[in-house]
Amino acid sequence: MDKNTKKSHTEMMARAENAVKKAAMEFSGNLTDRVHDLEQAIIQNSPQDIIRMAYELESEAATFGWPRVTRICKWLRKVFSGEFDNKPKAEEILKAIKSLKIMVSDPKKPDEDRDIELIRELYPILSRVVTDI
Length: 133
Known about the structure:
The structure is a single chain. By secondary structure, the protein is an all-alpha fold. It has 6 helices and no strands.
C-alpha cells in the first residue's frame, strides 16, 4: 500500500469512527425519551407501536453497547408480537419497563453493577415467558 492510499484509508477510518461515535451519542442522548415513549405505547395498549419501538431500541442498543437494554427490548417485542411461551402478567411487563427506565436513567454514566443486578432479578421472568432472549 503506497503512502497516499494508506493516508486515505486512515482518514476514511477516522471519519467512520467519528460517525459511529456521533450516532452513539445521539442514541444515548435520546434513550431516556425513547424508553418513555415505549412505556406510553404500553400504557396506551398500542401493540404495533410497542413492537416497532422495541425492535428499533433492541437493534440500536445492540449496536451501541447496551446488551441488557437489548434483551429487555427483545423480550417486549416478542411478548407484544405474540412470540411467547407463557403469557406474562401485566406486573411482569411493568417490572421490565421499570428496570429499563432505571438502566437508561443516566446514559452518560451507566452503572454496570446495578444493571447486572436488575437483569438477574428480571431474568426468571424473561426466560419463563420467552426462552430465546
